[in-house]
Amino acid sequence: MLIAFPWERVRKGSVLTMKLRGQISDQLKSRFSSGLSLPQICENFIKAAYDPRISGIYLHIDGLNCGWAKVEEIRRHIFNFKKSGKFVVAYLPACREKEYYLASACDDLYLPPSAYFSFYGFTVQAAFLAGVFENVGIQPDVQRIGKYKSAGDQLTRKSMSKENCEMLTAILDNIYGNWLDKVSSTKGKKIEDMKNFINEGVYKIERLKEEGLITNMHYDDEVISMLKEKVGVQKDKVLPMVDYSKYSRVRNWTLGLTGGRDLIAIIRASGSISRVKSPLSLSGSGIIGEQLIEKIRRARESKKYKAAIIRIDSPGGDALASDLMWREIRLLAESKPVIASMSDVAASGGYYMAMAADAIVAENLSLTGSIGVVTGKFSLGKLYEKIGFNKEIISRGKYAELLAADQRPLRPDEAELFAKSAQNAYEQFRDKAAFSRSMPVDKMEEVAQGRVWTGQDAASRGLVDAIGGFSRAVAIAKQKANIPQDRQVMLVELSRPSPTLPEILSGIGSSVVGAERTLKELLQDLAFSEGVQARMDGILFQGLEEASYDNPILTLIKDYLGSL
């Protein structure tokens, strides 16, 4: 700590503050990126537990827009941090079931008297566009292989299918049951008491205090005053605090948290899957198959890595890209142990990647499976008539217009070929899943059919090997690589981002001091771009499909609907 850079220095007795709000990415963020990163949040908890300068943590939790698996991972780190003997206090200006679930792990939990608060229960929803399409003159031709593969339903149906209802009900029951179990256990309540509390329709925050579900009702300044008292700061003095962004820059080795000689490669795959980067894409977000394959090959060709962890947070996407990455992960697994660690979603193409690993680890509420195929095209003839658009095609070859002709429905022979092609894609996916999981094809068929499972249900059906977070994946990787569990390992991030030009420019201040500081941080990022060492203890259902839609057509539809 004596040789830390100025931006890594923290006053003794400081309180680490983190605002957990909105989206939480499973990817690492560059110094110049905004937003929250799950690995950096978790690393901050670990560093703070060992950092003698940190007295405790003050969490602002407000309007989370992430899945339950990420919330579970953070919650686990709160409990682990509390083992250090330091405090964790939560403040919730807006509190629903997800925010409360996370905050319930803290020592104290405060809401302002005017907080937005509702404990009314859990819902899942499914929207259907068939009626809209009828009105505007669009006829979707969709091939959906797997009776539970519901992604195409929103285009072709006006109501929920029996199978989709069954699947969503099971997922909802798992979320509800997990919430009741964990919250009642943490707060010393009976499950039945928590059920009754939700069903009572409580709307007064005072009832939370009466039931012992929160510590008290206080404003932020009042909580800070109590924190001053807790850390021994006089009332007229400023509470020393360090925020998430600054503390994320504190490197592990300055706290003595160095890794061991054994290296484990971490490859993060987050977002929808594409085979190549679109020339129109400026952000490069999502999983680009070509880029991820390069990282997988780096891990395979290097002898310094004893194992690899593929961290997946993806609803799927391009089927070909998923298969090409599956192949590379299989080759990697032939040279060293590979563990797949699932975040919020590892479904469809996300599961396709995971099933190539030696072992799969998921959280209880990770969404996975969805072994199925959806593909489709739109017939826009009636829409074209309404807007006065005409399109004529000259073709050679019996099926030349199968994908090109969007002004008419498919002919019977085209529809038959379309269906056979989708069925073939499904069988390849299903058979590869059976091979990868050492399961007979007929048994895999029982759990495939496009059905989405939660992690706990997937584990009971052989689609997942273990329940847990990133730390469980590390432990299994060490076991398979014959590394003793009590030996420290160095986790090397192969997916560490480089800052983009807009991010750099947005981070440059107008003052000379700000510019110098930004330049120093950029040089530091470049110096450590080859890998970062870390020690980690460790429902919106959209896009769970491999869809092949004509983007210009969708643009036309969007523009037309937007004009109505």
UniProtKB/TrEMBL annotation:
It holds the Pfam family Peptidase_S49. Keywords: Hydrolase, Membrane, Protease, Serine protease. GO terms for biological process: signal peptide processing. The active site is at K149 (proton donor/acceptor), S348 (nucleophile). It is found in: Membrane. One of its GO terms (molecular function) is serine-type peptidase activity. Coiled coil: none annotated. Residues 81-233, 332-483 form the Peptidase S49 domain. One of its GO terms (cellular component) is membrane. Belongs to the peptidase S49 family. This is Serine protease SPPA. It comes from Populus alba x Populus x berolinensis.
